[in-house]
Amino acid sequence: MSDPTSSKIPFATVTMAEILLGQDMIAEAAEVIDRLVDERGDDARVRELLERVRERCAQGEVLQDSIARKMVDRIEIKSRDGVLRISFELSDQGLAIARRKVRYSGHSIVRLFTASTGPRGVRKNTRDIEILHPAAQLDIHGLPRSSVHVAAIGFLGRNGAFVPLARSGIKGITS
Questions:
Q1: Which structural domains are found in the chain, ordered by start?
Q2: Mean pLDDT across the chain
């Protein structure tokens, strides 16, 4: 149970929670929603917000397993039971070219673009996932229902420049 006197958020409303969720301020939104649950847990909008914040908190779970290399830059995405599986590979030649373009400073990433529908329209999100292996599969759990995803693999320079080496097709997750 939350203590209203120790909160950083001065008041708790459904609109405030929706705004915080829309701005990816998950911890603050969870704090507001906890207060709303304490005050009026039987409200359908509060229960829906609680479910949304739980989904967003689960988005942090990414599992990465190495796979056999074919020495080609490629990425593909599939979905099954609400889990998005991204298979990718970076070739040594493609990675060398990308590193030169950003002056060798940075790291390899998968960039995931997500568009999902919400109560206030379409919400777009970009997420960078640092890769641990030159060829691997990522399983991403807890993505929003009714969403569309596109992924790219490449090299992200310290200067913020992203050099894509391959892009996937579009994949949807439905509820």
A1: 4-58 (no CATH), 62-173 (2.60.40.10)
A2: 81
Residue type, 122: V
Amino acid in the structure at residue 33? I
Look at residue 74 in the predicted model and tell me its pLDDT.
93
Q: pLDDT (tens digit, 9 = 90+) per residue, 63-90?
A: 677 787 888 899 999 988 778 889 999 9
Burial 116-136 (b: 16+ CB within 10 A, else e): beeeeeebebebebebeebbb
State pTM to two decimals. 0.64
Q: How far apart are the first and last CA of the chain?
A: 31
Q: What is the per-residue pLDDT across 104-133, written as a single tens digit (0 to 9) for each?
A: 788 999 999 988 887 778 888 888 888 888
Task: Concatenate the DSSP letters of all residues of the chain into one string.
Answer: ---GGG-SSS---HHHHHHHHHTT-HHHHHHHHHHHHHHHTT-HHHHHHHHHHHHHHHTT-EEEEE----SS-EEEEEEETTEEEEEEE--HHHHHHHHHHTTT-EEEEEEEEEEEEETTEEEEEEEEEE-SSSEEEEEE--PPSSEEEEEEEEEEETTS-EEEEEE---EEE--
